[in-house]
Design brief:
Layout: H1 2-25, H2 33-36, H3 44-78
Length: about 80
């Protein structure tokens, strides 16, 4: 059981680091003060690509968060 617990701990660390990286890659929901003064000059096509990238990152965030929770529960059961 120690080997399984060690494998789960390593996977937990890797998933945690990947989740941190994915969250940091996402844009913030608020654009700050720049949006208040109309500094948003992106074209529609670049907005579409950015939205697509953001949607993928949000899905990955949800997936990695679920995997993180499952690994934490598995570690509790095994450990």
């Amino acid at each position: 059981m120690e080997v399984v617990a060690t494998i789960i701990k390593i996977a937990l660390v890797i998933v945690s680091l990947l989740l941190i990286v994915i969250v940091l890659m996402q844009k913030s929901k608020s654009s700050g003060m720049g949006a208040a003064f109309g500094s948003e000059t992106a074209s529609f096509t670049s907005k579409g690509r950015a939205a697509s990238k953001e949607a993928k990152l949000q899905k990955l965030t949800i997936i990695f968060a679920i995997v993180l929770g499952v690994l934490a529960i598995a570690l509790t059961v095994v450990g």
